[in-house]
Write a structure and sequence with these properties.
Distance between the termini: 49 Å
Oligomer: single chain
Strand content: 5-15%
Mean pLDDT: 95
Order of helices and strands: EHEEEHEEHHHHHHH
Largest sheet: 4 strands, mixed
Number of strands: 6
Radius of gyration: 19 Å
Number of helices: 9
Structural class: alpha+beta
Strand order of the largest sheet: 2-1-5-6
Low-confidence stretches: none
Length: about 325
């Protein structure tokens, strides 16, 4: 049955995210089914989606925008098939319908669901972005963001403009993996556990865990420039994509409103610091973000009203230079 993330709730009313399905790898290994060839792959994203913007961040930071094409779908979910009621990611009909979103010129698909069905006609599951698409074999290579970013970090170095940039350095891998785990549980996925909860008890549990993790971030960032030390890493990208959406969306829409992130001086300055890294700001389209969340879930916001503000200036000065980097 076709479904989306908002449908993933248990009988207890708790949100339970299911695993991604397509898990192949682009690899430099001889004989790889998916070798890292320039021009062969396309990254389907939505600027609204934090998981997709992880991948776009890596693509731009590594300087792979000439080797791997990318495009964004429409912000607001629409009907994906006439034969059922599933709503999900769709493509605009023209380049002018929505700035920075475009039709699917590769496959002529009207919806992301169609891409999954091209890759696997009997596919059953969620129709999510990001998608790393193989133009040659016309299939989905991988739709798990945590794995796509690892591929972008190492496997395409032969065609990258910034091959020396390593966002998962060997000497920090243990601390990065540990950080990714608690950040995912408490923050990346935690905000969804708040927003998609259907009963009070799982919401209460989730929101407390979110702010425990936020307080942990605030304490760490009071001692060092980035979340794993004074070097910018994968863990910062994974944390940033949720933090940048927090005050604009999650605090209101997902009821993560115990405190705003701009009330935490270390976190707020950290968000501005990461945003100002070359390439990162171009992954943040706040109009896309707010249109998607407030306009795509009728059960949460039946009238689709998008709130004004807070319109934060993330280019304003920050104090993170006080730490060495």
């Amino acid at each position: 049955m076709a479904r989306s993330g908002i449908d993933e709730t248990s009988e207890s009313g708790a949100f339970e995210r299911t695993a991604s399905t397509f898990r192949s790898f682009v690899s430099r290994d001889p004989g790889s089914q998916f070798p890292p060839e320039s021009g062969r792959y396309h990254l389907y994203i939505s600027y609204a989606c934090p998981w997709a913007c992880r991948c776009l961040s890596f693509l731009l930071l590594k300087g792979l925008d000439q080797a791997i094409t990318f495009s964004s779908c429409h912000t607001i979910w629409g009907r994906t098939k006439e034969t059922d009621d599933h709503r999900g990611w769709v493509f605009p009909d023209s380049n002018t319908e929505l700035p920075r979103a475009e039709p699917d010129y590769l496959n002529g698909a009207k919806t992301v669901r169609e891409l999954y069905e091209i890759a696997s006609p009997n596919y059953v599951g969620k129709y999510t972005v990001p998608i790393l698409w193989d133009k040659k074999l016309k299939t989905v290579v991988n739709n798990e963001s945590s794995e796509i970013i690892r591929m972008l970090n190492t496997e395409f170095n032969g065609v990258a403009k910034n091959p020396s940039l390593d966002l998962y350095p060997s000497h920090l891998r243990e601390v990065i993996d540990e950080t990714n785990e608690w950040v995912f549980n408490g923050i990346n996925n935690g905000v969804y556990r708040c927003g998609f909860a259907r009963k009070q008890e799982p919401y209460d549990e989730a929101v407390n865990q979110v702010f425990e993790a936020v307080e942990r971030c605030e304490a760490i960032l009071g001692k060092q420039r980035y979340i794993c030390g004074n070097i910018f890493t994968e863990a910062d990208v994974r944390l940033f994509v949720t933090l940048i959406r927090f005050d604009e969306v999650y605090a209101v829409y997902f009821k993560c409103n115990k405190r705003l992130l701009r009330e935490y001086p270390n976190i707020f300055n950290y968000i501005k610091d990461v945003y100002q890294i070359n390439g990162m700001s171009s992954t943040v389209k706040m109009d896309h973000i707010k249109q998607h969340y407030y306009g795509s879930h009728p059960t949460l916001n039946p009238f689709g009203i998008i709130p004004h503000g807070p319109n934060i200036d993330y280019f304003s000065p920050h104090d993170r230079h006080r730490f060495s980097s």
